[in-house]
Design goal:
Low-confidence stretches: none
Mean pLDDT: 96
Order of helices and strands: EEEEEEEEEEE
Helix content: under 10%
Length: 113
């Protein structure tokens, strides 16, 4: 079972990034998938989630998202995405994909003002 993230990088405030997480080793559609982030010196923070096929892949978000981020998945590619718009200086962190107790290594997001 493996989760591999990509898509992070450096972006100006107000810009956008799309993160990807490719999953392998399990039946992707049967699991809820989530994104978390961790900034230096801060605790792990929930960003967004996509429910399993049983829930119709319902989506849910951390309070701070406020409509700026969208989580979606492509089951044919075993990939969950996080589209991030209107990035702010409060968003820089390592963003990690999650399934249950499993986390990927993450991808770094940096925002310049």
């Amino acid at each position: 079972v493996e989760l591999v993230e990509s898509g992070g990088g450096l972006v100006q405030a107000g810009g956008s990034l799309r993160l990807s997480c490719v999953a392998s080793g399990f039946t992707f559609s049967e699991y809820s998938m989530k994104w978390y982030r961790q900034a230096p010196g801060k605790e792990l923070e929930f960003v967004a989630g996509s429910g399993s096929s049983v829930s119709g892949h319902s989506t849910f978000y951390g309070d701070f998202v406020r409509g700026r981020f969208t989580i979606f998945r492509d089951s044919a590619k075993n990939t969950v995405y996080l589209q991030m718009n209107d990035l702010t200086p409060g968003d820089p962190a390592i963003y990690c994909c999650n399934r249950g107790v499993l986390y990927g290594r993450g991808t770094q997001v940096t925002v310049t003002s």
